[in-house]
Automatic annotation (TrEMBL), chain A:
It is found in: Cell membrane; Membrane. Residues 6-66 form the V-ATPase proteolipid subunit C-like domain. Key component of the F(0) channel; it plays a direct role in translocation across the membrane. A homomeric c-ring of between 10-14 subunits forms the central stalk rotor element with the F(1) delta and epsilon subunits. It comes from Terrabacter aerolatus. This is ATP synthase subunit c.
UniProtKB/TrEMBL annotation, chain B:
SUPFAM superfamilies: F1F0 ATP synthase subunit A. Key component of the proton channel; it plays a direct role in the translocation of protons across the membrane. This is ATP synthase subunit a. The keyword GTP-binding does not apply. Belongs to the ATPase A chain family. GO terms for cellular component: plasma membrane; proton-transporting ATP synthase complex.
Protein backbone atom coordinates (compact mmCIF):
# COMPACT_ATOMS: atom_id res chain seq x y z
CA UNK A 1 0.00 0.00 0.00
CA UNK A 2 1.46 3.32 -1.06
CA UNK A 3 0.34 6.81 -0.26
CA UNK A 4 1.19 9.78 1.82
CA UNK A 5 0.60 10.23 5.51
CA UNK A 6 0.00 13.96 4.99
CA UNK A 7 -3.41 13.11 3.52
CA UNK A 8 -4.19 11.16 6.70
CA UNK A 9 -3.24 14.28 8.62
CA UNK A 10 -5.80 16.22 6.64
CA UNK A 11 -8.46 13.70 7.60
CA UNK A 12 -7.57 14.15 11.26
CA UNK A 13 -7.59 17.93 10.98
CA UNK A 14 -11.11 17.82 9.52
CA UNK A 15 -12.64 16.12 12.58
CA UNK A 16 -12.55 19.14 14.88
CA UNK A 17 -13.92 21.70 12.41
CA UNK A 18 -16.59 19.19 11.37
CA UNK A 19 -17.87 18.97 14.93
CA UNK A 20 -17.47 22.72 15.38
CA UNK A 21 -19.45 23.69 12.29
CA UNK A 22 -22.17 21.25 13.33
CA UNK A 23 -22.41 22.86 16.76
CA UNK A 24 -22.57 26.36 15.30
CA UNK A 25 -25.41 25.57 12.92
CA UNK A 26 -27.25 23.58 15.60
CA UNK A 27 -27.15 26.67 17.80
CA UNK A 28 -28.21 28.89 14.90
CA UNK A 29 -31.19 26.69 14.02
CA UNK A 30 -32.15 26.51 17.68
CA UNK A 31 -31.99 30.27 17.97
CA UNK A 32 -34.08 30.89 14.86
CA UNK A 33 -36.63 28.27 15.91
CA UNK A 34 -37.07 29.92 19.29
CA UNK A 35 -37.14 33.47 18.00
CA UNK A 36 -37.68 33.70 14.22
CA UNK A 37 -37.36 37.50 14.16
CA UNK A 38 -33.74 37.22 15.38
CA UNK A 39 -32.73 35.53 12.13
CA UNK A 40 -31.18 38.62 10.56
CA UNK A 41 -29.04 39.18 13.63
CA UNK A 42 -27.96 35.55 14.01
CA UNK A 43 -27.09 34.91 10.36
CA UNK A 44 -23.85 36.92 10.13
CA UNK A 45 -22.72 35.54 13.49
CA UNK A 46 -23.37 31.98 12.36
CA UNK A 47 -21.52 32.38 9.07
CA UNK A 48 -18.66 34.20 10.75
CA UNK A 49 -18.31 31.40 13.26
CA UNK A 50 -18.46 28.86 10.47
CA UNK A 51 -15.74 30.65 8.50
CA UNK A 52 -13.44 30.85 11.50
CA UNK A 53 -13.98 27.23 12.51
CA UNK A 54 -13.71 25.90 8.98
CA UNK A 55 -10.40 27.71 8.48
CA UNK A 56 -8.65 24.99 10.48
CA UNK A 57 -9.75 22.30 8.06
CA UNK A 58 -8.70 24.50 5.15
CA UNK A 59 -5.24 24.96 6.66
CA UNK A 60 -5.17 21.19 6.96
CA UNK A 61 -5.71 20.66 3.25
CA UNK A 62 -3.18 23.36 2.33
CA UNK A 63 -0.56 21.82 4.62
CA UNK A 64 -1.35 18.33 3.35
CA UNK A 65 -0.31 19.50 -0.11
CA UNK A 66 2.70 21.36 1.25
CA UNK A 67 4.06 18.31 3.08
CA UNK A 68 3.20 15.88 0.32
CA UNK A 69 6.79 16.33 -0.77
CA UNK B 1 -11.05 -4.21 -3.79
CA UNK B 2 -9.30 -7.01 -5.66
CA UNK B 3 -11.85 -6.93 -8.52
CA UNK B 4 -11.28 -3.22 -9.03
CA UNK B 5 -7.54 -3.68 -8.89
CA UNK B 6 -7.57 -6.35 -11.60
CA UNK B 7 -9.97 -4.49 -13.91
CA UNK B 8 -8.39 -1.07 -13.63
CA UNK B 9 -4.89 -0.55 -14.97
CA UNK B 10 -2.98 1.55 -12.50
CA UNK B 11 -2.18 4.54 -14.70
CA UNK B 12 -4.68 7.03 -13.32
CA UNK B 13 -2.96 9.95 -11.63
CA UNK B 14 -5.22 12.01 -9.37
CA UNK B 15 -5.08 15.79 -9.88
CA UNK B 16 -2.53 17.65 -7.80
CA UNK B 17 -1.06 21.12 -7.44
CA UNK B 18 0.28 21.01 -11.00
CA UNK B 19 -3.36 21.48 -12.10
CA UNK B 20 -3.11 25.12 -10.99
CA UNK B 21 -0.02 26.17 -12.91
CA UNK B 22 -1.35 27.19 -16.32
CA UNK B 23 0.92 29.61 -18.18
CA UNK B 24 -0.57 30.93 -21.41
CA UNK B 25 1.94 33.33 -22.95
CA UNK B 26 5.62 34.01 -22.53
CA UNK B 27 8.06 31.80 -20.73
CA UNK B 28 7.22 28.93 -18.42
CA UNK B 29 8.80 30.82 -15.54
CA UNK B 30 7.92 33.53 -13.05
CA UNK B 31 7.27 36.04 -15.84
CA UNK B 32 4.62 33.98 -17.63
CA UNK B 33 1.15 35.40 -18.25
CA UNK B 34 -1.02 32.76 -16.60
CA UNK B 35 -4.67 31.85 -16.85
CA UNK B 36 -5.69 33.35 -13.47
CA UNK B 37 -4.02 36.66 -14.44
CA UNK B 38 -6.10 36.76 -17.60
CA UNK B 39 -9.25 35.87 -15.64
CA UNK B 40 -8.60 38.62 -13.11
CA UNK B 41 -8.28 41.17 -15.91
CA UNK B 42 -11.44 39.79 -17.51
CA UNK B 43 -13.32 40.04 -14.22
CA UNK B 44 -12.33 43.69 -13.81
CA UNK B 45 -13.61 44.47 -17.32
CA UNK B 46 -16.83 42.51 -16.72
CA UNK B 47 -17.54 44.15 -13.37
CA UNK B 48 -16.82 47.65 -14.69
CA UNK B 49 -19.03 47.07 -17.72
CA UNK B 50 -21.86 45.60 -15.67
CA UNK B 51 -21.86 48.34 -13.05
CA UNK B 52 -21.66 51.13 -15.64
CA UNK B 53 -24.35 49.60 -17.83
CA UNK B 54 -26.81 49.08 -14.99
CA UNK B 55 -26.33 52.40 -13.24
CA UNK B 56 -25.87 54.85 -16.12
CA UNK B 57 -29.58 55.51 -16.51
CA UNK B 58 -30.66 55.59 -12.88
CA UNK B 59 -34.43 55.49 -12.56
CA UNK B 60 -36.77 55.83 -9.60
CA UNK B 61 -38.55 52.78 -10.93
CA UNK B 62 -35.53 50.53 -11.50
CA UNK B 63 -35.21 48.13 -14.38
CA UNK B 64 -34.15 44.53 -13.95
CA UNK B 65 -30.41 45.24 -14.24
CA UNK B 66 -30.47 48.14 -11.81
CA UNK B 67 -32.55 46.06 -9.41
CA UNK B 68 -29.91 43.29 -9.38
CA UNK B 69 -27.04 45.70 -8.83
CA UNK B 70 -28.95 47.45 -6.05
CA UNK B 71 -29.66 44.11 -4.37
CA UNK B 72 -25.95 43.21 -4.32
CA UNK B 73 -25.05 46.71 -3.19
CA UNK B 74 -27.70 46.40 -0.48
CA UNK B 75 -26.15 43.19 0.87
CA UNK B 76 -22.79 44.91 1.30
CA UNK B 77 -24.04 48.32 2.44
CA UNK B 78 -26.77 47.33 4.87
CA UNK B 79 -26.10 43.69 5.60
CA UNK B 80 -22.36 43.96 6.17
CA UNK B 81 -21.03 47.52 6.50
CA UNK B 82 -23.88 49.20 8.39
CA UNK B 83 -24.46 46.33 10.80
CA UNK B 84 -20.82 45.82 11.71
CA UNK B 85 -19.13 49.23 11.47
CA UNK B 86 -22.06 51.25 12.80
CA UNK B 87 -24.24 53.86 11.13
CA UNK B 88 -21.89 56.78 11.90
CA UNK B 89 -18.73 55.81 10.02
CA UNK B 90 -19.67 52.98 7.68
CA UNK B 91 -20.22 55.01 4.51
CA UNK B 92 -16.55 55.69 3.74
CA UNK B 93 -15.74 51.96 3.79
CA UNK B 94 -18.60 50.87 1.55
CA UNK B 95 -16.66 51.44 -1.74
CA UNK B 96 -13.80 49.22 -0.57
CA UNK B 97 -16.08 46.49 0.76
CA UNK B 98 -18.31 46.56 -2.31
CA UNK B 99 -15.29 46.30 -4.61
CA UNK B 100 -13.87 43.40 -2.62
CA UNK B 101 -17.19 41.58 -2.65
CA UNK B 102 -17.92 42.01 -6.34
CA UNK B 103 -14.40 41.18 -7.53
CA UNK B 104 -14.11 38.09 -5.34
CA UNK B 105 -17.61 36.93 -6.26
CA UNK B 106 -16.95 37.27 -10.00
CA UNK B 107 -13.60 35.52 -9.77
CA UNK B 108 -15.05 32.71 -7.67
CA UNK B 109 -17.92 32.17 -10.07
CA UNK B 110 -15.34 31.83 -12.85
CA UNK B 111 -14.48 28.55 -11.14
CA UNK B 112 -17.64 26.86 -12.39
CA UNK B 113 -18.64 28.91 -15.47
CA UNK B 114 -17.47 26.89 -18.51
CA UNK B 115 -15.13 28.91 -20.74
CA UNK B 116 -13.25 30.23 -17.70
CA UNK B 117 -13.51 27.15 -15.43
CA UNK B 118 -10.75 28.24 -13.11
CA UNK B 119 -11.13 29.97 -9.75
CA UNK B 120 -8.64 32.84 -9.79
CA UNK B 121 -8.36 32.77 -6.01
CA UNK B 122 -6.92 29.25 -6.07
CA UNK B 123 -3.56 30.88 -6.79
CA UNK B 124 -2.38 32.14 -3.40
CA UNK B 125 -1.02 35.44 -4.78
CA UNK B 126 -4.46 36.91 -5.48
CA UNK B 127 -5.97 36.44 -2.00
CA UNK B 128 -2.70 37.63 -0.43
CA UNK B 129 -2.90 40.88 -2.40
CA UNK B 130 -6.54 41.42 -1.36
CA UNK B 131 -5.90 40.66 2.30
CA UNK B 132 -2.85 42.96 2.31
CA UNK B 133 -5.10 45.81 1.16
CA UNK B 134 -7.52 45.06 4.00
CA UNK B 135 -4.63 44.75 6.46
CA UNK B 136 -3.19 48.15 5.55
CA UNK B 137 -6.63 49.79 5.57
CA UNK B 138 -7.71 48.64 9.01
CA UNK B 139 -4.40 49.54 10.62
CA UNK B 140 -4.27 52.97 8.98
CA UNK B 141 -7.84 53.94 9.87
CA UNK B 142 -7.25 52.72 13.42
CA UNK B 143 -4.10 54.83 13.74
CA UNK B 144 -5.84 57.85 12.25
CA UNK B 145 -8.66 57.49 14.74
CA UNK B 146 -6.71 56.80 17.94
CA UNK B 147 -3.26 58.15 17.10
CA UNK B 148 -0.21 55.90 16.69
CA UNK B 149 0.36 55.21 20.40
CA UNK B 150 -3.33 55.20 21.21
CA UNK B 151 -4.02 52.56 18.58
CA UNK B 152 -1.62 50.06 20.12
CA UNK B 153 -2.95 50.95 23.56
CA UNK B 154 -6.51 50.31 22.40
CA UNK B 155 -5.60 46.68 21.65
CA UNK B 156 -5.64 45.89 25.37
CA UNK B 157 -9.05 46.07 27.05
CA UNK B 158 -9.23 48.50 29.94
CA UNK B 159 -9.62 47.29 33.50
CA UNK B 160 -7.14 44.45 33.15
CA UNK B 161 -4.81 43.53 36.04
CA UNK B 162 -1.37 45.12 35.55
CA UNK B 163 0.43 41.77 35.42
CA UNK B 164 -1.74 40.52 32.56
CA UNK B 165 -1.25 43.55 30.28
CA UNK B 166 2.01 42.43 28.55
CA UNK B 167 0.66 38.95 27.78
CA UNK B 168 -2.63 40.18 26.41
CA UNK B 169 -0.86 42.89 24.42
CA UNK B 170 1.50 40.32 22.92
CA UNK B 171 -1.39 38.01 21.99
CA UNK B 172 -3.39 40.85 20.45
CA UNK B 173 -0.31 42.03 18.56
CA UNK B 174 0.18 38.60 16.98
CA UNK B 175 -3.52 38.40 16.13
CA UNK B 176 -3.57 41.84 14.53
CA UNK B 177 -0.30 41.76 12.66
CA UNK B 178 -0.07 38.13 11.66
CA UNK B 179 -3.04 35.82 12.24
CA UNK B 180 -5.73 38.04 10.75
CA UNK B 181 -4.22 38.73 7.31
CA UNK B 182 -2.86 35.19 6.98
CA UNK B 183 -6.13 33.48 7.84
CA UNK B 184 -8.08 35.92 5.66
CA UNK B 185 -5.97 35.03 2.62
CA UNK B 186 -5.63 31.32 3.37
CA UNK B 187 -9.35 30.81 3.95
CA UNK B 188 -10.30 32.15 0.54
CA UNK B 189 -7.40 30.36 -1.16
CA UNK B 190 -8.03 27.06 0.59
CA UNK B 191 -11.73 26.96 -0.18
CA UNK B 192 -11.24 27.70 -3.85
CA UNK B 193 -8.26 25.35 -4.16
CA UNK B 194 -9.97 22.45 -2.40
CA UNK B 195 -13.26 22.95 -4.25
CA UNK B 196 -11.59 23.07 -7.65
CA UNK B 197 -9.39 20.05 -7.02
CA UNK B 198 -12.45 18.10 -5.84
CA UNK B 199 -14.38 18.87 -9.03
CA UNK B 200 -11.37 17.97 -11.18
CA UNK B 201 -10.97 14.73 -9.26
CA UNK B 202 -14.61 13.74 -9.71
CA UNK B 203 -14.67 14.55 -13.42
CA UNK B 204 -11.32 13.03 -14.44
CA UNK B 205 -11.85 10.01 -12.18
CA UNK B 206 -15.34 9.49 -13.59
CA UNK B 207 -13.98 9.80 -17.14
CA UNK B 208 -11.27 7.25 -16.39
CA UNK B 209 -13.79 4.77 -14.97
CA UNK B 210 -16.22 5.29 -17.87
CA UNK B 211 -13.51 4.54 -20.42
CA UNK B 212 -12.05 1.54 -18.59
CA UNK B 213 -15.20 -0.58 -19.08
CA UNK B 214 -16.79 -3.36 -17.04
CA UNK B 215 -18.44 -2.71 -13.68
CA UNK B 216 -16.58 0.58 -13.44
CA UNK B 217 -18.85 2.21 -16.05
CA UNK B 218 -21.68 2.34 -13.48
CA UNK B 219 -19.32 3.77 -10.87
CA UNK B 220 -18.13 6.33 -13.40
CA UNK B 221 -21.72 7.43 -14.10
CA UNK B 222 -22.39 7.83 -10.37
CA UNK B 223 -19.15 9.81 -10.04
CA UNK B 224 -20.25 12.20 -12.75
CA UNK B 225 -23.59 12.74 -11.02
CA UNK B 226 -21.61 13.57 -7.91
CA UNK B 227 -19.45 15.93 -9.94
CA UNK B 228 -22.64 17.78 -10.92
CA UNK B 229 -23.81 17.92 -7.28
CA UNK B 230 -20.39 19.14 -6.17
CA UNK B 231 -20.50 21.89 -8.80
CA UNK B 232 -23.79 23.14 -7.36
CA UNK B 233 -22.32 22.95 -3.85
CA UNK B 234 -19.28 24.84 -5.11
CA UNK B 235 -21.56 27.68 -6.28
CA UNK B 236 -22.82 28.03 -2.71
CA UNK B 237 -19.30 27.91 -1.29
CA UNK B 238 -18.09 30.53 -3.77
CA UNK B 239 -20.80 32.98 -2.80
CA UNK B 240 -20.27 32.23 0.89
CA UNK B 241 -16.52 32.83 0.71
CA UNK B 242 -16.94 36.19 -1.02
CA UNK B 243 -19.47 37.11 1.69
CA UNK B 244 -17.25 35.89 4.52
CA UNK B 245 -14.18 37.71 3.19
CA UNK B 246 -16.12 40.99 3.04
CA UNK B 247 -17.70 40.31 6.44
CA UNK B 248 -14.33 39.73 8.09
CA UNK B 249 -12.81 42.78 6.38
CA UNK B 250 -15.68 44.87 7.76
CA UNK B 251 -15.24 43.28 11.19
CA UNK B 252 -11.53 44.13 11.32
CA UNK B 253 -12.22 47.71 10.23
CA UNK B 254 -15.00 47.93 12.83
CA UNK B 255 -12.58 46.73 15.52
CA UNK B 256 -10.02 49.35 14.52
CA UNK B 257 -12.40 52.32 14.52
CA UNK B 258 -14.45 51.26 17.57
CA UNK B 259 -14.40 53.70 20.49
CA UNK B 260 -14.24 51.16 23.27
CA UNK B 261 -12.72 47.74 23.17
Amino acid sequence: MTGNIAILGYGLSAIGPGIGVGLIFAAYINGVARQPEARGMLQPIAFLGMAITEALAIFGIALAFVFKG
Amino acid sequence: MSIVATVAPADYTPPGIEEFWQPLFGTDGPLAITRPMLLMALSVILVAWWLLATTRKKAVLPGRGQMGTEAIYGIVRNGIAKDLIGSREFMRFVPLLFTLFVVILTNNFFGVIPPMSFPTMSRIGFPIALSLIVWVVFHVVGMKKHGFIGYWKSLVPSGLPKAMVPFIFFLELITDLFTRPVTLALRLFGNMFAGHILIVLFITGGWYMLTSGGVLVIAGGVTWIFAFVMTLFELLVEFLQAYVFTLLAALYIAGAVADEH
